[in-house]
Amino acid sequence: MRDYEVFRQWLGDVMDVIYGSSHNWPFKALEKEGMLMGKIKQKPKRARGPKGRYKGDDKSTPNVNEAWED
């Protein structure tokens, strides 16, 4: 479990003790939108060639950017 998830679970338990289990704390709204639990968009990563150097973008393919990995 990531540190953030441990903290989130701990905070939820504390809120349950204070307000009861039926409270609507802010993280529940974010979970419904799919923004938590690993669904946050990851930072893009540069593509590398066989020698470990960064790849450049091939200008002959305008719809594909080879310099970045998916």
Observed structural traits:
two-stranded antiparallel ribbon; mainly alpha; 70 residues; elongated
Q: Can you write the helix and strand succession as a string?
A: HHEE
Mind telling me the C-alpha Rg? 21 Å
Share in helix:
25-40%
What is the distance, rounded to the nearest whole angstrom, between the alpha carbons of the first and last residues? 25 Å
Kindly describe this structure.
By secondary structure, the protein is mostly helical. It has a domain of 39 residues. 34% of the residues lie in helices and 6% in strands.
Please give a quick description of this structure.
The protein has a domain of 39 residues.
Write the layout of secondary structure elements.
Elements: H1 3-19, H2 26-32, E1 45-46, E2 68-69
Antiparallel strand pairs: 1-2
